[in-house]
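Q: Please design a sequence for this.
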């Protein structure tokens, strides 16, 4: 059972109580993020008779490091690092359930609630700043970057031709600052958080 979706230690304690009450037969838990050394040691204290597995961009060097630090891990899940080249990760986070904004509040892994849109502002056809806001917001001077293409399993937009995709991609890349296009760039693109999203985040935290 994956237990680090929100709060690893709180989840482990809840499972321990369920095991003690005879509600479940727990054979193993999985840790997928955070400080695997400290978390595994704490989970071992709470669930001493349960196998602990770890995953999350793990390779042979990370396994050696975890063993050296006395991480309490019984097995490892390896996937991303088995591919050739440098992987690019994407992480899925729930932001809304039945119209109710939700967010992850784990330390160091907090997310923003609500359905969102990215608004890009240009200056003389060059990138100026991105704003992460709510999907309900509008900015006449900014371009929304996210567009709905599929709904209920049906395509909403006709497929673009290779030529169109090539032109759109070339224009998008040309609008970026030169230093961003450098593979060794140490600078990053500017992203602002809208006031509406900040207010919703505070409201969700306190709800």
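A: Design:
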């Amino acid at each position: 059972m994956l237990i680090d979706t929100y709060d690893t230690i709180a989840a482990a304690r809840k499972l321990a109580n369920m095991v003690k009450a005879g509600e479940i037969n727990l054979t193993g838990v999985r840790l997928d993020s955070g400080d695997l050394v400290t978390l595994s040691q704490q989970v071992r204290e709470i669930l001493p008779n349960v196998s602990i597995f770890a995953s999350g961009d793990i390779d042979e060097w990370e396994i050696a490091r975890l063993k050296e630090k006395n991480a309490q891990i019984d097995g490892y899940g390896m996937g991303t690092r088995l591919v050739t080249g440098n992987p690019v990760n994407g992480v899925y986070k729930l932001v809304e359930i039945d119209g109710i904004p939700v967010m992850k509040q784990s330390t160091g892994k907090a997310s923003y609630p609500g359905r969102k849109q990215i608004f890009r502002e240009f200056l003389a056809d060059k990138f100026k700043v991105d704003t992460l806001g709510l999907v309900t917001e509008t900015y006449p001077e900014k371009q929304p970057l996210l567009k709905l293409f599929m709904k209920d399993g049906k395509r909403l937009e006709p497929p673009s031709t290779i030529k169109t995709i090539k032109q759109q991609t070339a224009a998008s890349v040309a609008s970026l600052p030169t230093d961003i296009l450098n593979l060794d760039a140490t600078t990053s693109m500017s992203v602002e958080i809208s006031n509406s999203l900040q207010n919703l985040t505070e409201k969700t935290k306190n709800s």
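Q: Thanks. Anything notable?
A: The chain has two domains: 8-82, 114-205. Residues 15 and 21 are 10 Å apart (CA to CA).
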